[in-house]
Amino acid sequence: MASTYSFDVVSDFDRQELVNALDQVRRELKSRYDLKDTKTTLDLGETNIAIETASEMTLQAVHTLIQTKAAKRDLSMKIFEFGKIEASSGNRVRQDVELKKGLSQEVAKKISKMIRDNLKKVQASIQGDAVRISAKSKDDLQSAIQLIKQEDWPVALQFQNYR
């Protein structure tokens, strides 16, 4: 039996689910009467999604589609950071959507401080873009998870490697 238990707090998303959601959006763009002739393109990069479409109105419709399809696939809306709308060639508009992944140092420090201030038997250590929470009791880890879930964080949080 282990003397200490631990888990990691991370901010990540399932890339394959995002790919599937964007495929569904592309299919719906081809079939919806109001979006059919807009020649909208969605390009998934390593850290962003590039959207190019006919007007700001159709861009808003694409935003709604992306958010709806992502929500159905259990992706958090906090992973999307919509950038500035830019004019593109041929009276078109373009927008980059940044995909947020990993905990920033600021958020990791806030999580660590919250754990230290509220739970005396639990240790928190920052490890890159994750926070490792450890304790001698699994009950203490459960209370740490509940404490973290109560706060509204600017990023989507997951709890991994619970052991």
Describe the structure.
This protein is an alpha+beta fold. Helices cover 37% and strands 29% of the residues. The chain is built from four helices and eight strands; from the N terminus they run E-H-E-E-H-E-E-H-E-E-H-E. The strands form two sheets. It has a four-stranded antiparallel sheet, with helices on one face. Strands 2-3-5-4 form a four-stranded antiparallel sheet, with helices on one face. Helix 1 packs across helix 2. It is elongated, with a radius of gyration of 20 Å. The mean pLDDT is 90.
User: Given the structure, what is the number of helices?
Assistant: 4
Radius of gyration: 20 Å
Order of helices and strands: EHEEHEEHEEHE
Strand content: 25-35%
Key structural traits:
163 residues, alpha+beta, four-stranded antiparallel β-sheet, 29% strand, elongated
Summarize, please.
The chain has helices spanning 15-31, 56-72, 105-118, 138-150; strands at 5-10, 41-44, 48-53, 80-88, 92-99, 122-127, 130-135, 158-160. The chain is of the alpha+beta class and 163 residues long.
Write the layout of secondary structure elements.
Blueprint: E1 5-10, H1 15-31, E2 41-44, E3 48-53, H2 56-72, E4 80-88, E5 92-99, H3 105-118, E6 122-127, E7 130-135, H4 138-150, E8 158-160
Antiparallel strand pairs: 1-7, 1-8, 2-3, 3-5, 4-5, 6-7
